[in-house]
Amino acid sequence: MNVVIHLLDLFYRRSNSNVKEVVPLEAAFFYLVRTKTVFSGLIYAMCACAVQYSTHPMARATMAGGQQSLDETFSKLARVSIHDWAETDRHLDYLRTYCILIDYDAAKCHGKQAWANISISKTLLQLYRAQTQPPLDEVGILERIEFYLQIKEATHSLGHGALESSVLSQTVAWASHNSDYTQVGSEQRLLDLLRFFVRIHNYNNKNNPKAQVVQPWKSGSDFRTLHTEMEEYTVHFPSTPSLDENDTSQDDIEYTITEAMCSLVCHCCDIALNLRFLPIPEPNNGQGIGSLSTCVEFPGAPPLFILERRSRCEASAEAICRIAQDVVQGGGFFHYTALLGYCSVHAIFVLLNQLHRQPKHQQLGKVVGSLKFAFTLLAAVRRFYAPAASWLEIVFRAHDTSTPLTHHRSTIGEAFHSYLGRYVDVPEPCFVPLMPSADQSDILGSKAKEAQASPDESVGRGVLDVSERQNDESQQPAWVQSYAGHLSEDIEAEEIRLLRGESPSNAISLIGSSGETVVGQDGSIDTLMNIPKFWRKYRRRQG
Question: pTM of the prediction?
Fold first, then answer.
């Protein structure tokens, strides 16, 4: 029983904001203390979600003869409890349990199960409202559940253009509200921006340069339509909110964090819309890291159009790193863990492109510092959200100068179909994979062993733990071993600071400020340029 109470406490302190609203703390207190009755499936689901945050020995143990972890045991018990819908007076509890399991399954890369549960929950919500007149105290809860399902439907649609979703039929909310949209709350605006994000993803997935009737820089094109809608939102909300240290109440803090996330997603939408127009740097044929590379430009596009696309991407990437840092320092890492990581991926694409294009003599300290923060944040997200492991692999492959380029094997038009279309066999990152890949299954399976370490130790054993990749000295020269140790210590230390809610070091905290950013002890651009080499060796050893 003590373990259950411990896990329930972690659920309310560590789970994301939206899922906690499904079972408000006041409601849980009422169940446990006032009525002394509670639906066991709901408790099981909450415990399953919270296990990953716990360092309790029981939470780290394996159950059923070592065949399944504690979180898997809790999740199976929760699923069994909602299998029978005969108890009509339990419909609200069933709804809450499904919602929490959606969050659990998404974090485990089980998108197919999560998507099915979203559909079941929406149907169950309609049935519950149709069969009975909900009491007044449940009306608000049902609205929160409906909002939660809308958020999940939007995020699960990112990267899955083939999924039929009601999100794609939504009109632009800020256009229909006109001037009144400034009165819309931050949570609703975040949902509207996520839906707009899905529409941009859908446009990118269906975009075919050969079949374009209107070129994207011409008026009347689909690109211009989305661009205009993007501009309409920024007219309503042109500035980025800053976290005020004087905010003391939890409501003020959560409101400010949600405002910041709206701005973060807005910048991510801007990048997603403009990303494919970035130039393709050609390999520099051994001329050295940071040497001036020739670039392939989007075919037929006016120079000013390309310049604007590049400027918007670079400005948004810098803004994402700055806002994400503010959110983390303001204690919002666990409020929006997955969304922070997904937006960081888009910023990394832009920063890497900028790093590959510009010669070494230019002032790139700020770019490298932003990359360091984004990589560190993404590694921290991976600790609690398994799909982030595939995001890291994708950015490493895009960063690797040995990755084959599409236009070397096909046409230039094919290379600009999407941003990652310029690389051969590099997939687009999806927010939630429908099923875990073999690599993700291995990662999930290894977490029980990883959990035997202390929290600070286990955090550093992600894909950026380079020190474990230097055991085979026959494959690595001395300078690689020396560098690997430095990089591992640097990245792990920053990741641990993030998870503890502490302020990052100077190398991170200067991101977004004027002047150059200090990058580690040596200030070398090679720090970011060599990560893929260790990644490939790590992958070979793991394989």
Answer: 0.80
